[in-house]
Structures are given as C-alpha cells and as structure tokens.
Design brief:
The structure holds three protein chains of three kinds. Helix content of chain A is 48%, strand content 15%. By secondary structure, chain A is an alpha/beta fold. In chain A, a hairpin with a 2-residue loop joins β5 and β6. By secondary structure, chain B is mainly alpha-helical. In chain B, α1 packs antiparallel against α12. By secondary structure, chain C is mainly alpha-helical. A two-stranded antiparallel ribbon of chain C has the order 1-2. Classes of the chains: A alpha/beta, B mainly alpha, C mainly alpha. The interface between A and C is large, with 39 and 32 residues.
Chain lengths: 473, 293, 324
C-alpha cells in the first residue's frame, strides 16, 4: 500500500515537473517573442532612412557620431545604419540582394567597386540631378578627390556614387627581411625584373619558414595588379561615351581631364591575350622557383599574422592594412610600402567604395542629403579616424593619420593616383559574381603547373568568362 | 586483433586477469591504434585552443604548440569587441532549443501514429515522409524563402525555427523506437478497455522520453552548427547564429587575425562542450542502450 | 536500423525493427470503434508533421519544379522559358564537373567514414578498462559537436602549404611541403579529410550500438567452432552488423551528397572546379548570380539523382543485409 501511495506521489510530482517544464518552455517562448520575431531590432519597420554598410555592429556604432552630426544638420531626417556582416563584398551583395528578395531593401547601400556596376545596372538611382543642383556645394569635394576614383562610379554617362574611401594595390615589404637580404628600399620605378631579383635575394637570405612573396587569389590584389602593370587585363576594357557634364563642371582644369569618360565597360573576355599569358607565366615562375606561394582562394586571414611574424617578404595591399598591422604589433619601421613594380606600364589597380541610393528608396532627397553630408570633410573625419582604409579626400591622407603606426612612405598611397593617372578600378561588370568566380577558379591552376596546364587554365578561363558575361545579371 | 578468443563484450569489462602474467598484445596494439586516432581527433582542437591563447604575431609558431603555457587573452577581448557573442549564443540557443523541443514533440506524436495506430495510407504516407529526407535543403530554400516572406517573417529567428520543426528523421527514429517497445504493454492496456489516447498517455508517453531525448540531442547538435540556412535566412547581425558570426571574424581582405578567429571558434565551442558533457551520456546510452543492463 | 533504438527484448525485436518499412503489430484494440478512434488519434498526431512538411518541403519542391521552367532574378518578373534552363545546365561544364565531384566525394568520403568508424568501434568494444573506453568514445564523438564552419576555419590554417602544422609534421618525416589547398588533388583531399574527421563519430556511435546488440552467445558459438580474431569479425560481426551498416551508410550518403559548409569555407570550390559540389552550384547560381530558374533546374536534377541512389541502395540491401 505504501508502494502504491509513493507510486502515485511519484506520478504526481512527475506530472508537476513535466507540467512545469512545458509551462517553462511556453513562458520562455513568449518572453523571447520580440527576439524571435525580430521586433526588438531598433528601427525595424519604421520609415527612417535605412543605410546598409558592410561590417559589424561595432562598425555601425563607429558611425554614430557621424549620424549625430547629420541629425543636428537635418533634424527632420531619421537615419539608421544597418551593419551587415559578410566575408567579402560578393557575400555582402548577396545579402543585399536577399534583402531585396525579402521585400525589405535598404534605402542607401555602401557599395564597393566590385558591385558598382551591378547596382548601377539594376538597383541604384543616379546622382546626376542632385550633383547638377548642388554643384556649388560639391565643388570643394571634387577638388579634394582624384578623378580616377570618381570615374570608377560612372556608368554609361551617369554617376551613381561618390567615393568615400579607396585602396590601391601597393607593395608592402618587410624592412627586416629586406635588410637581411642586403636590399635597399626599391626605387619608385622598380621593374618586375627588379622585383624578382629582390625576392631571390630574400629567398637566399632566409631559405626556410619564410616566403618572399605572399599573395592570395582574389579580385583585389591577386593577379589583376600584375595584369594592369603589364598593360592588359583578363577582360577587354573599353569606355562608354558621356559624362562630360561632370568632368567639365568639376575637373575642367585637371591634367588628366581628357582621359575621363562616361565609365568603364567590360564586355568581352581577354584571357587569350598573349600579355595575359606572359603575366601568368611570370607568376608561375615565381611559384616554381619558390619565390612566391601558390595563392589560396579567399580572404586570407593568415596574412596579418604571417606578415607580422616576419614570415613574409612582400605582399600586395593598400592603406587599409596599416591599422591591422599596428594591432598585430608591428612597429612603424618594421615595414614600408612601395609602388607596385613597373612592367609595360605602371598602371595600378584600385578599389573604392561609396553610398548608392536604391531605386526603391522612399525618400531619395533625404538619401542624397546623407550622401552629401558623408562626403563632407567633417563627416569623413568622424568616420575614418584610423587607417583602416584610405580616405578619398587627398587632404585627409596626411601625417596625422599614420602617426605612430607607419609606414614611413605613406605618401605612396595617394601618389598612386596622382602620379599614375591611368590607374584603374577592379574590373567588375554587372555580372561581377560570375566573372569573379570565372577568374578565381582558374588562377591557382594557371600558376601552379607546367606551361601546358597554364595554357589549359587560360583557355578554360576564357570560356568561363564568356559564359559569365553572357549572363544577364 | 590477432590472437584472441575474447568475446565482444559490451558490459563494463574487467581488466583482463591474464595481463598480470603476460602482456596482452591484442590490447596493447588496440590501445596504441586508438590512441593515434584520438590524438588525430583531438590534436587540431588542442592546437586551436593554444593558438587562440597566443598573440597574433605568435600565431604561426612552428614547431606547433599544443598547450597554452603562457595564455594571452587579448584575442578574446578582441572577439568581444567585434562580436556580440552573448547575443549570438542567445540566438543559437533560442533557435536550437525551440527546434529541438518542437521536433521532440511532433516526432513523438507522428512516430507513435506510424508505429502503433492503424489508418489507411499509413505505408504510403510514411514513405513520403522518408523521401523528404533526401531532398537537399538547397533545393527548397528559395521557395521557403518566398514563403517566409509571405508570412512576414523575413530576417527573423522564426524563419529558421518553423521550417525545421517537421522532421523526417526524428519521425523515423521515434517510429522505430515505439516499434521496439514490447507489445504486451499495449495489449494489457487494451484489455483494460483503454482508449487509444489513454493507452498513449499512460503507457507509451512516459516510455517515450529516452527516445525523445535522442531526437532532441541530435536536433540540437545539427541545428546548433547549421550554417547554410542561417546564411540565407538571416540578414541583420542581430539575428545571426554562432557559426555565421564566426565566419565573419575572418575579415575582409585579410585584415582579420588568425588568433582572433580561433578565439571565436573556441568561444563557440564552449556551449556545445557543456551540452556534450551532459548530453553525451544520454545520447550514447540511447544509441547503445539495451546492452545488457 | 534497429540499433538506434533502446530496446528491451532484443534481438528478435531488432530484426523486426529492421524490416520496419512494414509496420509492426498494431498495439491497441481491434474493435470497430477502436479502429475509428485510432484513426482519429492518428490524424491528430500526424497533423503537425504532415502539415509542416507539406508547407515547408512538399510545396517548395513543387514550386522548385515550376521555377525551373522560368527565368527569374527576383528583381524583375519571372518569364517562362520552357526547357531552356535544363538545356543550359546540362551543357554547363561547371555543373557537370560539380556533379561528378559530388559523386566521387560521396564514394570516397563515405567509404572512409564507415571503414574508420567500424574499425574503431570494433577495437573500442573489445575488452579494455572502462575509463579508457569512455575516453575513446568521447574523443571520437567530440568533432561532431563542432560546427562544420568553424572546423573548416581552423583546418584551413592547419593545411596551409608554407606555415601549416600538417606540412610541418610531414617535413619531420622528410616529406616535402604538400600544396594542400592550392592544387586540385590536394584540396579535394583536404575537403574529404576534414569532412570525415568531423563525421566519422556519428557512424562510430551507430556501430557501437550495433555491436552491443550482437548477442554474446553468437561469439561463444563461433569461438567454439574455432573462429578467432579476424575470421570471427568477418564471419560473425560483419553479417550481424549489416542492418546497422545499412542505416549508417544511408545516413552517411544522404549527408555527404549535400556537402556544402566544408568546401564553401575551405576552398570556395576551387582551385578550378575541383572541390565544387552540386549544392554549391545551386547556391552560387541562385544567390550570387540570381539565376533562380537555373538553380531550381539543377536542384531538380540533383534530387532525382539522390532518389535514384537511395532506391538502388535499398534494392541492394535486400540482397546483402542479413537479418537474424
């Protein structure tokens, strides 16, 4: 009988426990409903101007001071910055397209060269009318910004973005490794042959646990700077007509005025160009002789650690790298930066970024006010306090930005544009994602085998690019 | 495995008595091989842990170090600066917890129906359920995405939870589980004149708990680590789950630091590790149960 | 398939459960009203699962099939293109290569995963101190709790050609640096190794369960007959384990066919197309190029292939799986 009673009691307490568990789960679900439905995300569903940037919430918070300043200027416009995490720009654009697909597109998007034409072609609203209207206010901005950066955002005669920040592929080098190999700082017009000799000298000085030239396989800083230096590219580059309205009103007196056009066009593949072969063959030679690594595909987060631990002699990178190296413990004299080596030309590759207004934006005038404000010196100083990128304004690339962090020759960054006015953007037609894949997937094969494999890789690159460019988006 | 006449034993075996007299070569060989496998399994994790506890400039130290002798926590501080780890864990916990509970309940009910209740079309329906297991999530993701949009749930955690609750595998497991229970239980109940519902509630439901635990643990493990659906379904970082947050630590254009990335990886392991310590026993018991207790 | 289920009366029940594609004994009363109320209860119990699956799996599959006949980029309205997407997909060398990669990957990865898991399970289940057994089981299970994405992140560093730990160990043995992630063979090997490293633990646990369900008398009888060591496993363990092997291989194949995280993080499908898998191609064409129709066409083809493989597997299993 006692057994039966305890059994019943046990049954009872079991039920109570189960009931409590069930109630707990239901309670927890109800309590976390705002989290589950996303309604606790500030600004969701309201009609404030939504601005999407690539980055983390820390990056969004860093813009808070700029937002505050903007609100003081335009108390009627409410702004929210939405940071979108992504591995690279391609990934970021995927996310923006997903937002479009979800029916919740942002009003303004921070777009890099990689996506400039994708947005211009399909998603963005041109800035032309606003620039004409506010030409007087904008003159000061264009005065301070190199026209090459602006031209990168021209598409079929219209301007879609104002460049905010940019980076060229310069050559970083480790001063210790150069010293050990008995090398001096390279001359501004060093050639690809000089470069190779320097690598060989470093290899001799440090035979192991060291790589003279480290590079990764991506659109920026991969194989493209070498193609540009050799005065070619993997896509045929042409320019479209138009855009004179802009050049005449803002850059009439610029020495490179007559170079400017209505925007770049990449319509045909060019991987069968003999110079493309020559360039790849040069890189293949570096790999074969142990002077350069076989490039890995993708971001390459090993890079900072490897460079900061003196395992890398040289690597292509831009002004964005200074802060990262500083944080990894590199002193300002441990490394320096030089121009990219000269070949047939010394044309450099750069990438830039700026805000684009979406066609679907509810209040385009407000969006333009944000863009205009962001281009002001005041706003850019708030947004770029550290050398995590190179500001588009020449006057901001100064001693103060690099003080205590290096490199000694930081002037190289903006001189890349001023001294080499033909320096061009990352080739990125509207079909950028497909084109990038077509390039990247064949690079490793091209540089890591024999000549036959190189030829095959370039043939398949040509074919893949043809397919990619035929696609509509 | 050379010379033995030993039985395969699943009881907790005694240390072989013979080993005092002469070495048991079979045992020694097996332990050596298993040790190699264990080192290969745990080594990479140890390396990750010790590298995350070194400064970025030390991260590529060779020869490799597998023990963090002089831990340096700056990378961890950096992770907390870059990511809202607490929110990521909360999101992951909410998503996986609710999916697990949802799967346990619905799978138990459906599994019971397929195992113990008679109705027309049972076989056909069960085959359809099984067949859905074979359809890769990538195939259905676009229509599911549009469906979620239609429900007004774009970029919410519910968009991750709701589609994951109906589970073919869980239903299959629970059906097998109910089939494995002795049938005389139900016979006894039906002699008592109990209705099917009473039979379920008073006889089978209490017995189903261990099976449900397996379903829950497997669901938790799978969805805690899920990458693809969150990659597509969530946009705001407020809705990110752990695996997504980690990948973004790698940084654009190689500006990330390996030590920071690995610190993030280690942090993400901790909740799973806690679950592992508690869930492991249940899961192993579940999967190996009946071995002679 | 019996092995995943705790049971009281094995092994007879085990065999029954294995054949469980056919339902077992109905458990409740056989009267008319009983059947009636059973039917009601069944539909109530099935409702959440069936409705959920209908909404989130079956409708999307149907939608996918329809979408495969349209060109659609989400931004503009879809246009009907007939079989164009299929024609393009079939001609696309990248798609073809990625399907072949997937099949090769499944064969190699599943064979390695099952072989390793079985060998380790057999070794762990024979006599050894209990604490050691617990340690080994936990160790082999451990990688399963990690996310494939984070595993791929740290494996990328370990397999770095110049500075990775793997090549450092190989160099101790005098093996020159292997270009793991930058050559087709190397990166395929890494994707397979990383995948198997993470997943063999699951098959391992299934095999442990399967081994535990083999009655000891069988081995006693076998050893009386003079079967020892290897022969014992070949003649007793393998046949008796075949239901578990079927379950483990079906599950391993289904999951390997859908491999995405590892190649996506490790190699992005390269170099060339050497590690591009079928589901990666679906992802790329849908979410990077906005070719939703084409992506659906690839998805439809892939689904048909998976179904054919699974059907073939069950066919074969009828011949090779041994039920007690």
């Amino acid at each position: 009988m006692t057994g039966a009673t305890t059994g019943r009691l046990r049954e009872l307490s079991r039920r109570t426990a189960l009931g409590a568990l069930g109630a707990g789960i239901v309670g927890a679900t109800v309590a976390s409903w705002p989290r589950l439905s996303g309604s606790d995300i500030p600004g969701r569903g309201d009609n404030s101007l939504s601005i999407a940037i690539m980055g983390t919430s820390a990056d969004a918070a860093a813009r808070q001071r700029a937002i505050d300043a903007f609100t003081r200027l335009h108390p009627d416009i409410r702004v929210k910055v939405q940071a979108i995490q992504a591995v690279d720009w391609k990934d970021f654009f995927t996310k923006i397209l997903t937002m479009v697909a979800a029916g919740t597109p942002p009003d303004v998007v921070y777009v890099a060269t990689e996506g400039a034409q994708l947005f211009a072609d399909k998603l963005a609203h041109p800035l032309d009318e606003y620039l004409r209207r506010d030409a007087a206010d904008m003159a000061e901005f264009f005065d301070d910004v190199h026209p090459s950066l602006v031209e990168a955002f021209m598409y079929k005669g219209s301007l879609f973005q104002l460049p905010m920040d940019w980076n060229a592929a310069n050559m970083y080098y480790n001063t210790t490794a150069f010293g050990q190999a008995g090398l001096e700082r390279p001359a501004d017009d060093w050639t690809n042959v000089d470069f190779r000799n320097n690598l060989a000298a470093m290899r001799k000085a440090r035979p192991s646990d060291f790589t003279p030239y480290y590079w990764t396989n991506r659109l920026f800083g991969g194989v493209v700077p070498w193609l540009y230096a050799n005065d070619t590219s993997f896509l045929k580059e042409t320019r479209s007509a138009g855009g004179d309205w802009l050049w005449d009103s803002f850059y009439a007196n610029d020495p490179s005025r007559n170079l400017r056009s209505g925007g770049y066009q990449w319509l045909e593949p060019n991987a069968d160009d003999p110079r493309v072969f020559e360039t790849f063959d040069y890189l293949r030679g570096l790999v074969k002789d142990g002077l350069g690594v076989r490039p890995e595909e993708g971001g390459g987060s090993s890079l900072v650690g490897l460079f900061a631990s003196n395992r890398i002699g040289t690597t292509p990178a831009g002004g964005y790298w200074v802060q990262g190296l500083h944080e990894a413990g590199m002193k300002e004299n441990d490394y320096d930066v030089a121009f990219f080596p000269k070949w047939r030309s010394q044309r450099h590759q750069f990438g830039t970024a700026g805000y684009a207004i979406m066609k679907t934006a509810k209040d385009k005038d407000a969006a333009w006010e944000w863009i205009k404000f962001s281009a002001s010196r005041e706003a850019m100083e708030l947004i770029f306090p550290n050398p995590v990128t190179t500001p588009a304004r020449r006057s901001m690339v100064n001693e103060a930005l690099y003080a205590g962090k290096g490199p000694a020759h930081w002037k190289v960054f903006y001189d890349t544009l001023d001294k080499y006015p033909t320096t061009g953007p990352i080739p990125a037609p509207p079909q950028q994602a497909a084109v990038e894949t077509a390039l990247m997937k064949n690079v490793s094969l091209a540089v890591s085998g024999d000549e036959r494999q190189l030829k095959q890789a370039l043939e398949s690159m040509q074919r893949d690019l043809e397919l990619a460019l035929r696609r509509q988006s | 495995m050379t010379t033995t006449t030993e039985r395969v034993s699943t009881r907790t075996p005694a240390v072989p008595a013979r080993s005092r007299r002469r070495p048991n070569w079979n045992l020694v060989l097996r332990i050596v091989l298993l040790m190699i496998a264990a080192v290969l399994t745990l080594g990479p994790v140890m390396w990750t842990l010790s590298t995350s506890l070194r400064s970025p400039s030390e991260s590529f130290k060779l020869p490799p170090s597998f023990f963090p002798w002089n831990p340096d926590f700056t990378s961890y501080a950096q992770v907390f600066r870059q990511l809202d780890i607490v929110l990521l864990v909360l999101n992951s916990a909410l998503v996986t917890g609710l999916i697990a509970v949802g799967q346990m309940v619905t799978a138990a009910m459906a599994g019971y129906a397929f195992a113990n209740l008679k109705f027309r079309g049972r076989g056909a329906l069960f085959s359809i359920v099984l067949a859905t297991m074979m359809v890769p999530v990538q195939v259905t993701i676009v229509p599911v995405f549009m469906l979620i949009r239609g429900m007004g749930l774009s970029d919410t955690l519910l968009a991750l939870i709701l589609p994951a609750i109906p589970t073919a595998f869980g239903t299959f497991l629970m059906r097998q589980y109910f089939l494995g229970l002795p049938t005389d239980l139900a016979e006894a109940a039906s002699i008592d004149g109990a209705s099917p519902w009473r039979t379920f509630r008073s006889v089978y439901a209490p017995l189903a708990v261990p099976g449900m635990a397996i379903v829950g643990i497997l669901a938790f493990n799978f969805h805690w680590n899920e990458f693809f659906r969150p990659l597509i379904m969530t946009i705001s970082e407020q809705n990110f789950t752990l695996p997504l947050g980690l990948v973004s630590l790698q940084g654009n254009l190689g500006t990330g630091s390996i030590s920071v990335v690995l610190a993030g990886v280690v942090l993400s392991m901790i909740p799973a590790l806690v679950g592992f310590i508690f869930g492991q026993r249940a899961l192993q018991d579940g999967l190996t149960a009946g071995s002679g207790k | 398939m019996s092995t995943t289920i705790p049971r009281r009366d094995r092994p007879k029940q085990a065999a029954k459960a294995v054949k469980a594609v056919k339902p077992g004994t109905p458990a409740t009363s056989q009267t008319a009203s009983g059947r009636h109320s059973q039917r009601w209860l069944a539909w109530i119990f099935l409702a959440p699962t069936i409705l959920g699956m209908g909404l989130f799996t079956l409708v999307p599959i149907a939608a996918s099939v329809v979408l495969a006949f349209f060109r659609w980029d989400i931004i503009s309205a879809p246009t009907f293109v007939g079989f164009d997407n299929f024609a393009e997909v079939v001609q696309d060398p990248t798609v073809r290569v990625s399907f072949l990669n997937t099949i090769a990957f499944v064969i190699v990865a599943v064979a390695l995963q099952l072989g390793l898991a079985l060998a380790l399970a057999v070794m762990v289940q024979e006599k050894m101190p209990a604490w050691l057994r617990t340690f080994f089981r936990s160790a082999f299970f451990f990688p399963l709790i990690l996310s494939a994405a984070s595993v791929s992140i740290f494996m990328r560093y370990l397999f770095n050609e110049q500075f990775g730990v793997v090549n450092w160990f190989l160099s101790l043995a005098g093996i020159p640096a292997v270009p793991w992630l930058t050559t087709p063979g190397g990166s395929a090997a890494v994707v397979i190794l990383v995948y198997v490293w993470q997943n063999f633990g699951f098959s391992f646990l299934l095999f442990i369960g399967g081994l535990a369900s083999i009655p000891m008398e069988t081995y006693e009888a076998a050893s009386l007959d003079g079967a020892t060591g290897w022969r014992k496993h070949v003649y007793v363990t393998l046949p008796l384990l075949s239901p578990t092997t079927l379950l483990a291989s079906v599950m391993a194949i289904i999951s390997a066919l859908q491999v995405f995280d590892q190649p996506y993080v490790l190699t992005r499908g390269g170099p060339g197309d050497s590690t591009r898998t079928a589901v990666m191609v679906i992802f790329e064409s849908a979410f990077q190029r906005l070719e939703f129709g084409e992506a659906s066409a690839i998805g439809v083809i892939l689904t048909l292939i998976i179904m054919a493989i699974t059907a073939a597997q069950f066919r074969l299993s009828k011949r090779f799986v041994f039920y007690q």
